[in-house]
Amino acid sequence: MEREISSGGVVIRKRDGVWWMAAIEVPQEPARGSKRTVGRTKPVVALPKGAVDPGEKPLETALREVREETGVEAELIAKLGDSKYVYSRTWGDGQRVFKIVSFYLMRYRSGRINQIAPEMRIEVTRAKWIRLEDAARLLAYKGEKQMVDRALEYIATHPEV
Question: Which of 56, 58, 81, 90 could disulfide-link to 7, CB 3.0 to 4.6 Å?
C-alpha cells in the first residue's frame, strides 16, 4: 500500500472575545455517474493542508500550506496530533493509500483571508474565518473535527493563548 505524508494547520485568532479559525472550501467533484456538474456541487469545508515536499519538515509544510491556501501568515502554538486513515484514489490507478496528516495549532499573524494566488483556485474555492466553536460541525472530515476538538481543549487549558 502506498503512503502519503501531509501536514496542515488549525489557525486561530480572537476578535471581540470570540475565537475564529481559518477554513477552506474545496470544490467537490460529483459522484461517478452523476449528471451534476462540478460548479453545482456543494463545497467541502476543510482545514488547509498538503503534501510534505522532499526535504521539507512537516511544520514548514503546514505553514506553507496555510499561507498558500488561506492567504494568511501564522505562527506555531503547538502540535495537535496526527490523523491517520486509508483512502482509495478516485483518479488514475484507484490504489488504496495509507495517509498521515500532522496538524498544528497556529496563531494568526498577518494577511487577508482568501487573498490567494489564482492558480490555487483549482484547490480552494475560497478561504474564510469560521467560529472555532462551530468548526467541528462544519468541517467535512472526521480527523479534522478531532483536531478542532483538540484545539478547543488546548485553548481551555492554556489561557495564555
Answer: 58
Query: Are the C-beta atoms of 148 and 136 separated by less than 8 Å?
Result: yes
* CA torsion, ordered 89, 90, 93, 97, to nearest 10 deg: 10
Instruction: Count helices and strands (H / E) in the chain.
Output: 3, 7
Q: What's this model's pTM, rounded to 2 decimal places?
A: 0.90
Phi-psi label, residue 149: left if phi above 0, alpha if psi -120 to 50, beta otherwise: alpha
Any bridge partners for residue 56, and if so which?
none
Does the 2-157 domain belong in CATH 3.90.79.10?
yes
Look up cell 456543494; give the residue: 42
Kindly report, residue by residue over 37-69, the tens digit of the pLDDT. 445 566 799 999 999 999 999 999 999 999 999
3-class DSSP state for residue 40?
A: helix
